[in-house]
Automatic annotation (TrEMBL):
It holds the Pfam family SIS. Keywords: Aminotransferase, Repeat, Transferase. This is Glutamine--fructose-6-phosphate transaminase. GO terms for biological process: carbohydrate derivative metabolic process. PROSITE patterns: SIS. It comes from the Bacteria. GO terms for molecular function: carbohydrate derivative binding; transaminase activity. Residues 30-173, 194-330 form the SIS domain. It comes from Shinella granuli.
Length: 340
């Protein structure tokens, strides 16, 4: 019998298509509000997979719109009661459930502080949607597996749709609209060869750059959640500032290169680690020494990174089962994590 996680990975293409269809008017409204406000900077409010979606959108906004984006620690509002001055800013709050108290408190604080605030949530109505000036229904459908998959992908698709609408970036808009078909190709990719390569590892790094770092962060979290595998995400530049000392034959590296300006540097990093005797693999056709992982080239530098998570999800779900674990029920976790 298929796990819920596997079923939900298979649903990613249709969930993205449903989101794009259902959210058209909310995307238009949020884009219009951003054009009117012309925010000089953004803040994000999110935790876990949603925070990795926020990191992806941070790079996408900075690269596309040239506005800096900062991640807020929710304790600023929920514990410290800090009053942030966010006039002239926009806030993006992301949560599948829309109800973790600290996320809601921080989103409320951002709205009260003067930000135009956009909730990206799979649950409407929800306290998070109520706390924000705008909300978008992620339309991912019920997500029963504790490990988020389709809601993570749809959080990013929703944010990119708003970004394209706000900035009038027609290339990005076209790329977002083709995502359901790109995801359908990505669902069919097979990374199962990795299982044998990683079997002796106790720990590993997932590397990326730009939007790919957000995908690497999400992949590292999923290794921990579903497979009891210690994994950390690093920028392929940051890892050189110390952490690379741990890499070796039994401390592998998975490098997630997208077809963007960072492709050569991420691939070069994977090749140089492989040349030094480490196990390294990379999503790049031009890799010389690192093992090549298959990927879908979406034709747009930002959506290209997003498509990388789909075959990874498929791999990690199977790997978890192969270890005798249930990826739907990670140890010590519940579907809705409420923090304060
Ligand atoms: O101060 P808090 O609420 O514990 O949150 C800190 C965390 O919040 C984030 O900024 C967003 O989740 C993380 O990067 C950081 O670790």
């Amino acid at each position: 019998m298929q796990t819920n996680m596997r079923k939900e990975i298979n649903e990613i293409p249709e969930a993205a298509a449903r989101l794009l269809e259902n959210s058209a008017s909310a995307v238009t409204a949020a884009g219009k509000a951003l054009r009117e406000r012309d925010p000089q900077f953004f803040v994000t409010v999110a935790r876990g997979s949603s925070d990795h979606a926020a990191l992806f959108l941070k790079y996408a906004i900075e690269l596309t719109a040239g506005r800096p984006v900062a991640s807020l620690g929710p304790s600023l509002a929920s514990i410290y009661g800090a009053k942030l001055k966010l006039g002239g800013a926009a806030a993006i709050a992301i949560s599948q459930s829309g109800k973790s108290p600290d996320i809601v408190a921080m989103a409320e604080g951002a709205t009260k502080g003067g930000a135009i605030s956009i909730a990206l949530t799979n649950t409407l109505p929800s306290p998070l949607a109520d706390a924000c000036t705008h909300s978008l229904d992620l339309s991912a459908g019920p997500e029963l597996s504790v490990a988020a998959t389709k809601s993570y992908v749809n959080s990013i698709v929703a944010g990119l749709a708003v970004l394209a609408e706000w900035t009038g970036d027609s290339d990005l808009d076209r790329a977002v609209k083709t995502l359901p078909e790109q995801f359908a190709k990505a669902v069919a990719l097979d990374w199962s060869d990795l299982a044998g390569d990683l079997k002796d590892a106790q720990s590993l790094y997932v590397l990326g750059r730009g939007p790919g770092l957000a995908i690497a962060s999400e992949a590292a979290l999923k290794f921990k959640e579903t497979s009891g595998m210690h994994a950390e995400a690093y920028s392929s530049a940051e890892v050189l500032h110390g952490p690379v000392a741990l890499v070796g034959p039994s401390f592998p590296v998975i490098a997630l290169a997208a077809r963007d300006a960072a492709e050569a540097s991420v691939t070069g990093m994977a090749d140089s680690l492989a040349d030094r005797g480490a196990y390294a693999c990379v999503t790049a056709a031009g890799a010389k020494s690192a093992r090549k992982l298959p990927f879908v080239a979406t034709g747009h530098p930002i959506t290209d990174a997003l498509a990388l998570i789909v075959p990874f999800y498929g791999f990690v779900e199977a790997w978890s089962r192969g270890k005798g674990l249930d990826p739907d029920k990670p140890v010590n976790l519940k579907k809705v994590t409420e923090t304060r």
